[in-house]
Specification:
The protein is mainly alpha-helical. The chain contains 11 helices and no strands. Helices cover 75% and strands 0% of the residues.
């Protein structure tokens, strides 16, 4: 279709109208055929047997179908960049919808929600990499369908959920305690707390959590680092997500033991417990050390 279109432009430039009818007929013949081929592609994605395509519970890297989709889409976007055909835009959007649905169906086969997120992150990241290598990233190239930004949004959403899931798998009691204590203290400040409500912020529970954190925080960060190297197909992306995860962990820890944290608002016992906790400079030093490639 693009070749035929370029021929039409050349003939117009050379003022050779004798081929107009022929080129128009070629165009009329080729467009329906393209639509048939696209319909077959979309149908194959929609009707794919995910159990057959699934690589098993331990395979978390980008699926080959996603790579084929990304390369095909990159080709269509490049061909349509200075052509601006709305029918091609519609084709790209149909393919994108079918491919995204297939990836969601494949991810649903993983029992572990953390593995579901890892699988989707790796696939979305691979699609973005292919599009960027084709010059279709956010910094260049014409993408009328916003395909690149669409996958960026999907990746961002899955990354946020993965960070919370990863931290919950290691420090769920600590995170729950911080959120609960903040809610109770906020109610007390607003004058809505009942007389016995302050007892829900338990110093004994906080002490156990702080000591548990001190016992295993380094080993846990080491394990997160190893998982980031192993589970992500793109090492740079893995390190970025590890950085976000550790930064969020530092935020939770600061909300617990910082100068404005929940323990400092629990009186002298809470302040004394903060002094026993792992210092923030030591925590930050370990984070920076693990983020070195």
């Amino acid at each position: 279709i693009r070749i035929n279109h370029e021929h039409q432009i050349i003939m117009q430039r050379r003022r050779v109208p004798c081929l107009d009818n022929y080129l128009d007929k070629v165009n009329i013949m080729v467009w329906p055929r393209l639509k048939v081929v696209v319909d077959l592609h979309v149908e194959s994605l929609q009707q794919a047997q995910v159990r057959t395509l699934w690589g098993g519970g331990e395979e978390l890297h980008a699926h080959y179908v996603a790579r084929r989709y990304a390369e095909f889409t990159a080709s269509l976007l490049q061909l349509n960049a200075d052509y601006g055909e709305s029918q091609v835009d519609a084709i790209i959007e149909r393919l994108r919808g079918a491919a995204c649905q297939l990836l969601l169906r494949l991810s649903a086969l993983y029992v572990d929600s953390r593995k579901q997120l890892l699988f989707l992150i790796n696939n979305y990241d691979m699609v973005l990499t292919v599009l960027k290598e084709a010059g279709l990233g956010s910094e260049g190239g014409m993408d009328r369908t916003n395909t690149y930004s669409h996958f960026e949004e999907l990746l961002s959403a899955q990354t946020y959920m993965f960070v919370e899931e990863e931290l919950a798998s290691h420090f769920r009691p600590l995170i729950q305690f911080v959120k609960k204590a903040e809610a109770v203290q906020q109610q007390q400040q607003q004058g809505r707390g009942e007389a016995g409500e302050a007892l829900t912020v338990s110093i004994g529970e906080a002490r156990a959590l702080v000591r548990d954190f001190a016992d295993r925080w380094k080993l846990t960060i080491e394990q997160m680092h190893k998982d980031a190297i192993t589970n992500f197909g793109n090492l740079q992306r893995g390190m970025e997500i590890l950085q976000r995860t550790l930064s969020q962990l530092l935020i939770y820890y600061t909300r617990l033991t910082g100068s404005e944290g929940v323990l400092m608002k629990c009186g002298p016992e809470g302040a004394a417990l903060c002094k026993e906790a792992i210092s923030h400079p030591a925590f930050i030093y370990e984070i920076k050390n693990k983020l070195k490639l």
